[in-house]
Amino acid sequence: MKVLLIGNGAREHALGEAICRSPQKPELVVLADKINPGLQKLAAVYEKVDSLADLEKLKEVAEREKPEFAIIGPEAPLAVGATDLLESLNIGCLAPRKNSTRLESSKSFTRDLLQKHNIPGNPEFSVFVQNPEAAKAIRLFMESLDGQFVVKADGLKSGKGVKVVGDHLAGIEDGLHFALKCLEEDGRVVIEEKLIGEEFSAMFLTDGKTLAALPVSQDHKRAFEDDKGPNTGGMGSYSDENGSLPFLRPEDLAAAREITEKVLVALNSETGETFRGVMYGGFIATKNGIRLIEYNARFGDPEALNVLPILKTDFVEVIRAVTTGKLRSLPLEFEKKATVVKYAVPEGYPSNPVVGTEIKLLGMPEGCRIYFAAVDIDDEGRILTGTSRALAFVGIADSLEAAERIAEAGIQKAEGKLFHRRDIGTPMLIEKRMRHMNSLRG
Ligand code: AMP
Ligand code: GLY
Q: pTM of the entire structure?
């Protein structure tokens, strides 16, 4: 039996590992646009293509290899309909079809979906379209939010489409300027209330009917310690041994689940399709309860690294259950472990990463896992920095404190022109998050 995996980041390395752990001994077929040395080692077939969004090539590989099912990591192939194509070849996908992927690819679609179906979780928001009155209307709306707003481009912008007042925007003039630029590019822009609280990632696997919750984690988007610096793809994340986070209460997780359950039903009825794959909600715990920041229609990266290494259930069975609508009869089991993920990234990342410099791995402490992301390999087999996150180190232990120490000790063994956030998962940062949440909740 063959499983097709599309993508080549650390998330896909962890997905590949989970697939290969299966006692069913599947053959892993990888479609990648870069060599991931970790994934390549696991794969029976490693097909390198110029673009993951090349459907012709995907068709060729799928028809040749005839996998039983496929799993798609990144958003680009989803957005061009990789799932639609594979399903037309009778290959079940742990990934939604193009139309359902609007849950991630259009911010306005998802805000409107919640509103139309009376689902709780939206902040105050308004969608603006290109017209001569737009600038005036946007300004008025920003003023009505007391200047506390966020501007969101409508399409997929690789993390660069969201600007928050106070962080990336100085005030209304700045915000208006960015909003008008978004309107010009996409004909549509979302303006919403700036929410204050602690963010968390809640991912659910779904076969379209049943939701299976994965351990909840917290990502760190800012490049530098203490949440300073530019936004990145995510510098690391942590999850506690109870599958939650120290600042969350059980009712917070229940609220995130309830929102997601309702969104699934609404989405399926809106698209006429069945969403199969991962609903990854970016939520924020505020003083007024849980609010939705956004949904992604795929596994998070780094968040996937908090959940896949501790999944006890046979992942191939999970994919089968998702793609055949039988998730209800397959309860997911995870090891009761805390996990801390830290990314080593090239100096200068994200704006100006040093590319092509050697990374040396000097051994590894016990319990630490390493996952390759965007690295290059030269003719002599040396590992080199690429333009994005290089290597992920995952500490797994009985407590967050121990998991953090393992991840930190592991990342210290990566030598090169690299940096990472030491603070992720440390008691100091976690206490800060808890103090913040306690002060909001009174
Ligand atoms: P998104 O691409 O929607 O996940 O947004 C990227 C980041 O912008 C989020 O992780 C938040 O930190 C921030 N953000 C998005 N929407 C809001 C909001 N309404 N209030 C405060 N921060 C937000
Ligand atoms: N953790 C951010 C993302 O996967 O989009």
A: 0.96
